[in-house]
Amino acid sequence: MLPAVYAAAQTPQAGAATADLVRSLGAAAQPDIVAARRLLHRFPEVSGQEANTQKLLCEQLDELGIPYRKLDNNGIIATIAGTAPGAYDADGAPVRRVALRADMDALPVAEQTGLPFASENPGIMHACGHDAHMAMMLGAVRILRDAADSLTGEVRIIFQPAEEISIGALSMIEAGALEGVDAIYGAHIWSEVPAGTVSCAPGQRMANTDWFRIDIDGVSAHGSMPHKGVDAVVVGAEMVAALQILVSRDVSPFEPVVVTVGEFHGGQARNIMAGHAWLTGTVRTWSEGLRSEVPDRLEHIVSRIAHAFGATARFTFEPGNAGLANDPTCAEVARQAVIDTLGDQGVADYRGTLSGEDFSEYLRIVPGVFCFVGTRNPQVGADHPQHSCHYTVDEDVLAKGSMVAAQWVCRMLSGAKG
Known about the structure:
CATH superfamily of the largest domain: Zn peptidases
Structural class: alpha+beta
CATH architecture of the largest domain: 3-Layer(aba) Sandwich
Order of helices and strands: HHEEEHEHEEEEEHHEEEHEEHHEH
Distance between the termini: 14 Å
Number of strands: 15
CATH topology of the largest domain: Aminopeptidase
Low-confidence stretches: none
Protein name: Amidohydrolase
Cofactor: Mn(2+)
Strand order of the largest sheet: 1-2-4-3-5-15-6
Helix content: 25-40%
Keywords: Hydrolase, Manganese, Metal-binding
Number of helices: 10
Largest sheet: 7 strands, mixed
GO molecular function: metal ion binding; N-acetyldiaminopimelate deacetylase activity
Radius of gyration: 24 Å
């Protein structure tokens, strides 16, 4: 629960003092935000390999005069000190501290957008919008630096690696990113939400995210003599189809669940029937109850198919991140921040998604909010889904994302007493 001191941050009047300033600073920062996004887009790096991305971000922070700490995991923790009266107590500790987080990693996707600033790293692309997240964060940093005399407290800036493999948030927490933090804000640019709007509803917004692997052992044979062996590729193909039984026949239609096989590898030559194959995939669930049942259900399907074909299979299930749920107070402050900066029409109505986010790991420790910054705009080609090789964003929304984040901070550190 948030301290009572944050109660007034939810009220419409709480943001009046900073809204005009944030909008003005955000509009002025728009060219720099777009330039940063394009620079970062050109040099994407996959999870765990974000060393150059860290370097580029540190150069930007140096230019802005923002102190920071580089981490061995390629992450960055920076600080913006508020200068409003009473921002720090007699011992030099901030009276309040809130955090903003942006993720840094890209995906193993070969870009096909044709953009003049397309990826220069073959086979790697910012296909999920993390380049936009970093750019929006840098925009928020610019705004908050110039609005420091409105901040009664401190802002912690978290640039996080390895979100796509679900370990980055935990490594940042271990590095102390949440020490002394009262609340946290995160955002994802989102292709299902109309450009120029932001969704920040309370309650569950994203799914539980878990992973699995299936290793299949058959018997190799000459490709012309299939009766002499057990084809691991055929067994795997049956499993790919059968795993969908969990979705279509084994779970209530009112219970959201997705099972996706993302990798299928098998065989060594075109004239040899495969003796081994392996699959990997992900499971997304909404409820904790179903999440706990899924491993046994999937393993049952896999083992029965393997037995029917005379093969053996090893099923491995790896728990990932829990579902993401917004704290009601933080969400309401975010909604008011959207209204402050974008008007009533800026509040999007979005049901949530079965995508996952390791931002949920922060929310296990401190209250916070995760917003969806809309980018869907077919007129500029921003209508492809996340993880598509054609994915791009409407750059006009980037400064708006920065403004909402900055205004959320201003409200949370408003100094109003509850």
